[in-house]
């Protein structure tokens, strides 16, 4: 599943019993993306929590929620979510880069450097390579 592909549907709407269609999950995922883009990360998290409860294996939903945690300065939660993603996708350069930014913002430069370098090694995007500071 790609980082932008929403999870498949399941039963159990947020906070109530009943069934949810796959379309409902797609709508919730897309709405969460829009909320994050509109700088409402807490709103995005509220939409993503029940979706992830129904689909804990969804890398796309978890990555979006990790980004929302970061944007709302919930750095411990962001780090836990990025680490969860990396346990399943150790070659996810973006997750390494985002985890590095999270560590950097949390005042843990050595942990940040490790993940910046992993991100750059996995995907030599200029922003990843620059953040890795290989010359130091």
Automatic annotation (TrEMBL):
Residues 1-11 have a biased composition (Pro residues). InterPro entries: TPR-like_helical_dom_sf, TPR_rpt. Residues 1-23 are annotated as: Disordered. SMART domains: TPR (SM00028). TPR repeats lie at residues 93-126. Keywords: TPR repeat. Gene3D superfamilies: Tetratricopeptide repeat domain (1.25.40.10). Signal peptide: none annotated. It holds the Pfam family TPR_19. SUPFAM superfamilies: TPR-like. This is Tetratricopeptide repeat protein. The lineage of its organism: Bacteria, Bacillati, Actinomycetota, Actinomycetes, Kitasatosporales.
């Amino acid at each position: 599943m790609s980082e932008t592909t929403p999870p498949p549907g399941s039963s159990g709407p947020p906070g109530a019993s009943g069934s949810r269609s796959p379309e409902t999950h797609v709508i919730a995922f897309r709405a969460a993306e829009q909320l994050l883009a509109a700088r409402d990360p807490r709103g995005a998290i509220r939409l993503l929590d029940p979706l992830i409860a129904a689909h804990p294996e969804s890398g796309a939903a978890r990555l979006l929620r990790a980004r929302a945690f970061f944007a709302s300065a919930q750095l411990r939660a962001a780090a836990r979510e990025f680490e969860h993603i990396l346990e399943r996708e150790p070659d996810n350069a973006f997750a390494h880069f985002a985890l590095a930014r999270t560590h950097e913002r949390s005042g843990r430069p050595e942990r940040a450097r490790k993940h910046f370098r992993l991100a750059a090694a996995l995907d030599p995007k200029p922003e990843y390579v620059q953040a890795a500071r290989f010359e130091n």
